[in-house]
Amino acid sequence: MKIFKKVFVPLLASVFLCATVLPSVGNAEQITKSEVNLVQTEVIQTDRGEATVTTNFNDDNHRITTIVENGKTTKIEFFPQDQTLLIDGVKQENFNVKESRSDFSLNAVPSGGTFVGKFDYSYDWVNVGIVFAAGIISTVTKAPVSTILVIIGAGASLNTQSYYTIYQYSYPRKCEAIPYANHTVFYQDASRNKVIGTADSAKFFSSQPYPIGCTP
């Protein structure tokens, strides 16, 4: 199943996002929906034209996002098992991740969920632009592109390095697979002390459920 939505994002020059309102800081209780639409398309209207971002999560172990802007198509691939990020087949060496598995979470655990661990990411998107950065981060976090654009765009004129942490939760086994959900916290800098926004994914399966078509 496929879902389509359209948003407008004003841009300054080629990478800087004009954002005057910070996103509200939510909590993990917002993670209630199931990932039904595994292919989603968002059309981002910018001062430079239109960018179409399509995320494909049919295979959670090989997530694919395509971005079409000014007639050019860029393919983003993310492999969660080894934390590899590719853009048009080229591995991104400036994409960093640190995994921390613990029984303790600073965030409220959503009802019915169990905290699995957290993953600290950083990515310098100065060479790719903000729409591509949002597409990349969406591919990793499974949060909506439009939500991420607002968060990272608020400080884009000062910083093109994104720091974010995924808090991951698991749920009771269903349809012979384990559902998960991500609560992503974005930070101002590498100290990860000041939160600038949060974004939640829907629940998702990390392996093929049976019967096929079962939702988390």
Description:
The chain has helices at 130-141, 145-153; strands at 2-8, 11-12, 16-17, 39-46, 49-56, 63-69, 72-79, 84-87, 90-91, 95-100, 114-124, 161-170, 179-187, 195-200, 204-205. By secondary structure, it is mostly beta strands. The protein has one domain (2-11, 21-205). The strands form three sheets. Strands 1-4-5-6-7-8-9 form a seven-stranded mixed β-sheet, with helices on one face. A hairpin with a 4-residue loop joins strand 7 (72-79) and strand 8 (84-87). The longest helix is centred in the middle third of the chain and has 12 residues, at 130-141. Residues 1-28 form the signal peptide.
Helix and strand arrangement:
Elements: E1 2-8, E2 11-12, E3 16-17, E4 39-46, E5 49-56, E6 63-69, E7 72-79, E8 84-87, E9 90-91, E10 95-100, E11 114-124, H1 130-141, H2 145-153, E12 161-170, E13 179-187, E14 195-200, E15 204-205
Parallel strand pairs: 1-4
Antiparallel strand pairs: 2-3, 4-5, 5-6, 6-7, 7-8, 8-9, 10-11, 11-12, 12-13, 13-14, 13-15
Helix pairs in contact: 1-2
Short description, anyone?
Residues 1-28 form the signal peptide. Keywords: Signal. The protein has helices spanning 130-141, 145-153, and strands spanning 2-8, 11-12, 16-17, 39-46, 49-56, 63-69, 72-79, 84-87, 90-91, 95-100, 114-124, 161-170, 179-187, 195-200, 204-205.
Count of spatially separate domains: 1
Class from secondary-structure proportions: mainly beta
Give the SSE string.
EEEEEEEEEEEHHEEEE
Largest β sheet strand count, sense and barrel closure? 7 strands, mixed
Instruction: Note the quaternary state here.
Output: single chain
Number of strands: 15
Q: How much of the residues is beta strand, in percent?
A: 35-45%
